[in-house]
Design goal:
Blueprint lengths: L3 H36 L4 H31 L5 H29 L12
Length: 120
Amino acid sequence: MQESPRFFKAWILYTLTCAIAILAVGAVVGLVVGVILGAAGCTDKTLDFVSHILGIVLGLSISFYTFRWAVSEVLFSQPAASQQGDDAGEKESRKEHISADDAKEKSWGGSDPWGDDPGR
């Protein structure tokens, strides 16, 4: 149940950002398309059809990218303090791994653990 506030925050961020972006982009693109098609002498039906198709394509695109951004920003982001802790733990883990490899190499008597080196 502790995840619910994060999901709610992501949903609110997505909804508000998406609505504002779609309204702004739709208004600008609608104005440009309306002026161009109106100047070209297109009928109202043609203008409606082109505007609807562009609206659907732009709306879906904006919705998808806004959703990706909101989810990655809220749900998959970690505080800076925990990332530093993870980095320190990861570095320590790498050191342990390297030390273990060095110990194995020394116990096998070299870099050829299976004894396949014909030069020995």
